[in-house]
Specification:
heterodimer; A: mainly alpha; B: alpha/beta; Rossmann fold; 9 helices; 18% strand
């Protein structure tokens, strides 16, 4: 770490510094074509199937809010005032349980011209 | 002795960095850790503050040839990809039993997919380190297709070198979070201190104790720790800290 950064952190009484304010409004975002192409690849559903089939896994401590975060919040979390980079608080609305549901939701948004 | 396999779909994502720091983190929690590199050209010693001249001893080399750093046993087994007896040998050495008494962390290069698959079948966890860049994301469908449902059963994901000051990095990270859900057990922020520590031949914890990458990867080691006591038949997913 550069000495000037070290000095700044010392003056702030912190051991890290990160930008926390972003202006990624969902309506302003372009959907990267590669992400859209990936969402349409059925092989990505494999991960979802490992969960829905019950072949894996007992989870010990999983934040239920994280597991139920809707696609709409994929980007909107950046609009929130995050207290800690490691403990963001997602806005919980309708649940999206798997990639297929996310894909359907994406298609619906596209059909309505919302993305 | 449980085994943790570190293997990602693409080179250059920091797989060896994560393997090294998982070993350190688990050792700090009281585990007796051996970390083995199966790469023909490995950089594992650099993450332990060792010089490039250090050649790690073979997994079967006698104890007096061991390279120990902070109580962690560093080994190599370069012929692992061709060695059909590698998995039986690990079994004979007791590496497939649960518990913290002895833990094996295996650093597998991205190109050694078949070896990784063979090892993951016997591992208590597979840690898949990726970054949020589009060329890495583009490889995920192929990696998932090759692994199949069974192969992904023990997989947990880590995003490394995350730069959320960049829009594409934020979006790639959000995509991975949405895709992996609770299987994303953590993210490691981009930190220049990581290559700087290598350049100064020091461990990151000594060179930059306040490093954000160090604190992030330590949290990931804590998240993985519960899997050490599980059996392959009833795997316990690591704790997600990737909010």
């Amino acid at each position: 770490m550069r000495i000037d950064a070290r000095n700044l952190l010392d003056r702030l009484g912190r051991n890290e510094f990160a930008y926390k304010e972003f202006e990624d409004r969902f309506s302003d975002l372009e959907l990267w074509p590669i992400l859209e192409a990936l969402l349409r690849d059925p092989r990505l559903q494999t991960l979802d199937q490992t969960v829905t089939d019950g072949t894996v896994p007992e989870t010990e401590t999983v934040d239920p809010e994280l597991a139920a975060e809707p696609l709409k919040n994929l980007f909107s979390r950046y609009e929130q005032q995050s207290v800690s980079p490691s403990i963001a608080k997602p806005v919980v609305e309708e649940p999206v349980r798997d990639v297929r549901a996310m894909l359907r939701h994406l298609s619906d948004l596209g059909a309505r011209g919302e993305i | 002795m449980p085994m943790i396999v570190c293997h990602g779909p693409k080179g250059g994502t920091g797989n060896t960095f994560v393997a090294a720091h998982l070993a350190m983190g688990l050792s700090a929690q009281g585990a007796d850790v051996t970390v083995v590199s199966v790469a023909a050209r490995d950089t594992l010693p650099l993450h332990f503050g060792l010089t490039p001249a250090i050649a790690l001893p073979a997994l079967t080399a006698p104890a007096d040839e061991a390279v120990l750093v902070g109580g962690i046993n560093l080994r190599s087994w370069r012929r692992a990809p061709e060695d059909l007896d590698f998995v039986p040998m690990l079994n004979d050495l007791g590496y497939f039993q649960p518990g913290k008494d002895r833990v094996l962390v295996v650093d597998v290069p991205s190109s050694e997919t078949r070896l990784a698959r063979r090892l993951i079948d016997h591992a208590c966890a597979h840690v898949c380190t990726i970054n949020a860049q589009p060329d890495t994301l583009a490889l995920l469908p192929q990696a998932f297709g090759e692994a199949g449902i069974e192969g992904l059963a023990r997989t947990a994901f880590v995003i490394n070198a995350l730069d959320e000051t960049r829009r594409l990095g934020r979006h790639g990270s959000a995509f991975i979070r949405e895709l992996a859900g609770p299987r994303l057990i953590g993210r490691i922020r981009m930190d220049e201190a990581v290559p700087e520590s290598i350049a100064t031949l020091q461990m990151l914890s000594r060179y930059a104790p306040a490093s954000v990458a160090l604190s992030d990867v330590q949290q990931i080691a804590e998240a993985i720790a519960p899997t050490l006591d599980s059996t392959s038949a009833a795997w316990i997913a690591p704790v997600s800290r990737a909010a």
